[in-house]
Amino acid sequence: MNRVVSLKKGSSLGDLVKDEQPRPDDDLRTRLHAMETKIRRMKEQRNSFNEDARRAADSRNALQEQSKEIRESIKDKLDEQKKVRDQAQICKARRDEIQKQIRELINQNRGRKDDAKGTKSVVIELSETINEIEKIENTMMTDGRLILETENKLLKKLKVLISKRDKLMPAVKDFEAINIDIGDMDGSIKLLKSEADKAHQEMIDFHKQADLIWEDVKPMLAERDFLRAEADRYHLAYVASRESANEVHENMKELISQVNEIRDEMKAAEEERVKVIKDHNQSVRDALKLPSEDEGMADSLASQLINSGSLTLGGVLTGDSKSPVSKNMRGKKQSRKLGTTRGKK
Fold this sequence. Notes:
Number of helices: 7
Coiled coil: 245-279
Pfam families: DUF7121
Keywords: Coiled coil
Protein name: Putative coiled-coil protein
Shape: rod-shaped
Radius of gyration: 62 Å
Largest sheet: none
Number of strands: 0
Order of helices and strands: HHHHHHH
Region (Disordered): 1-68, 316-345
C-alpha cells in the first residue's frame, strides 16, 4: 500500500526528510565542530607562544646591544691600559740598560773586565767606539811620521769602527741612553744612577695608572657578564617558546588534515543525499502526472490507437476490418479526413 505524504506549501520532500529523520552525518558534524573548536584554541595557544618568543627575542636583542656597547668600552679601556703598560715596559728596559751601564762602569773603575761575551752595555760599547775613532782620526791628522802602509791599516780600522758606531747609534737612541764621559767615571756613575731611579719611578707611575684603568674596567666586566647571562636566559626562553609553538603547529596540521577528511566525507554524503532526494522527487512528480501532461504517454497511446484500427472522435465509429478506412490506414499512407458520423437509429 502506497504511503501518502502531505507536504506543506513551499516545502520539499528533502525538508520533510530533514524534519522527520536524523541526518546520517550528525556524528561527523559534532566531531567536526569539536575539532574546529580545538583548532581555534590551538591557534590561540600557538600565537601566544609566538608572542612570548617575540618578546623574549626583543629583550635578548636589546641586552645583546647593551653588551656590545659595554664590550666596545672595555676594549677601548684595555687598549688604553696596554699603551700605558707598554710605556712602563719602555721605562723598565731603559732602567735595566742604565743599571747595566752602571755595573760596567763600576767594573772598569775597579780595574775589572767583564769576560762574558755580549754582556757589555750598548752605551759603553758606543762610547768606547767613539773614543777609538777620535784617537785614530787625531793620530792621522797630527802624526806626520806615518808611513803609507800604517796609514792604510788605520783607515781600514777606522772604517770598521765607523760602521760599528752607525750600528750602535739606533740602539742607544731606542733606549734613550745617556751619553757618558769615560774620563769621569764617578760623575758618570752618579748621573746614570739618577737616570735609573728616574726611569724606575716612571715605570711605577705607569703601572699605577694602568691599575687605575683596570679598576674602571672591573665593574664594566661585571656588567658585561650580567648582560650576557640575561641575554642567554632570554634566548633559552625564546627557543623554548618557539619549540612549543612549532609543536602546537604540527599538531594543528595533523588535526586540520583530519578536519579536511571529515569535510570531504560530509560533502560526498551531502551530494549523495541531494541526489537521492532529487531522484525521489522526480519519480513522485512523474507518478502524479496526468496522461495529458505526459508527452511520452500521449505518444504511446496515439501509436496504440493507430495500430488498433479503431478511432472514435466525438461519436462512435464501427466497421469491420475490411472497411475502406481500415484498408487505407493499413495500406497506403494516405491522408484521411476525420469527421463525426451518426450511428444507426
